[in-house]
């Protein structure tokens, strides 16, 4: 479980303090599929940085699994960070490394190897046959699937996704949405999804927080989306989306 208590964060630009988050109080339950929505500059990405430890709040407390992050030692913060993984909009793959090496990278950085885990995850995301390929040989959707496999290789308790579908075409978006649903069902991490694409949040999440200029304005429960219609072609899918 993640609890934010009166969390605020400001950045200084041109000698002026600009608030990114203002007195945020929020609770995310263990195992949730939780969405965070808002326009550009609303504080969504800042919140993810605070959760994963890339930034610290100016005021307030972030409590994760019962532990106040302000009270952790450096080593404890590192251990906490390893319990979280991120999926990025632009994939953040190393283009001079193979799909296998990119997937194994978090283990490599910890001085570990686990061929079974890496190949198991590549099979899970449908890319075992691409293990020796390089990112430039992959489509956008395939790159994001590699990024998701990489994020899962350390068995994280929390999966933080920052606009994971924004750089993808329609088919790629649908593939990633289905994959994240399967990730949640199979591995049961808490998934926190930041996106400006409201349709993606609605398809994936059970609750969503709405941010506006750094302020949490509402947290809403989302209705369950019934089984999606399948299409025989891109043209059929595009027509349905555009006319709905």
TrEMBL record:
Residues 2-238 form the ABC transporter domain. The keyword Transport applies. InterPro entries: AAA+_ATPase, ABC_transporter-like_ATP-bd, ABC_transporter-like_CS, ABC_transpr_LolD-like, P-loop_NTPase. GO terms for cellular component: plasma membrane. Keywords: ATP-binding, Nucleotide-binding, Transport. GO terms for molecular function: ATP binding; ATP hydrolysis activity; transmembrane transporter activity. It catalyses: ATP + H2O = ADP + phosphate + H(+). Gene3D superfamilies: P-loop containing nucleotide triphosphate hydrolases. It comes from the Bacteria. Pfam families: ABC_tran. Part of the ABC transporter FtsEX involved in cellular division. Has ATPase activity. Essential for cell division and viability. Belongs to the ABC transporter superfamily. PANTHER family: IMPORT ATP-BINDING PROTEIN. This is ABC transporter domain-containing protein. It comes from Vagococcus acidifermentans. The lineage of its organism: Bacteria, Bacillati, Bacillota, Bacilli, Lactobacillales.
């Amino acid at each position: 479980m993640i609890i934010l208590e009166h969390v605020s964060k400001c950045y200084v630009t041109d000698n002026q303090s600009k608030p990114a988050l203002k007195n945020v109080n929020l609770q995310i339950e263990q195992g949730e599929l939780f969405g965070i929505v808002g326009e550009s500059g609303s504080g969504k990405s800042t919140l993810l940085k605070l959760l994963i430890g890339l930034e610290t709040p100016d005021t307030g407390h972030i409590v994760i699994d019962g532990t106040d992050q302000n009270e952790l030692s450096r080593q404890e913060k590192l251990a906490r960070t390893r319990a979280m993984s991120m999926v990025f909009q632009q994939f953040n793959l190393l283009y001079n490394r193979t799909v296998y090496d990119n997937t194994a990278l978090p283990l490599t950085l910890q001085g570990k190897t686990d061929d079974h885990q890496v190949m198991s995850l590549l099979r899970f995301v449908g890319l075992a046959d691409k293990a020796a390929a390089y990112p430039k040989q992959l489509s956008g959707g395939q790159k994001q699937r590699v990024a998701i496999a990489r994020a899962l290789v350390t068995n994280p308790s929390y999966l933080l996704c920052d606009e994971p579908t924004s750089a993808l075409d329609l088919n790629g978006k649908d593939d990633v949405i289905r994959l994240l649903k399967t990730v949640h069902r199979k591995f049961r991490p808490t998934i926190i999804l930041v996106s400006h694409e409201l349709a993606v949040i609605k398809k994936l999440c059970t609750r969503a927080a709405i941010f506006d200029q750094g302020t949490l304005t509402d947290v809403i429960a989302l209705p369950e989306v019934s089984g999606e219609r399948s299409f025989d072609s891109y043209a059929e899918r595009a027509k349905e989306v555009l006319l709905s």
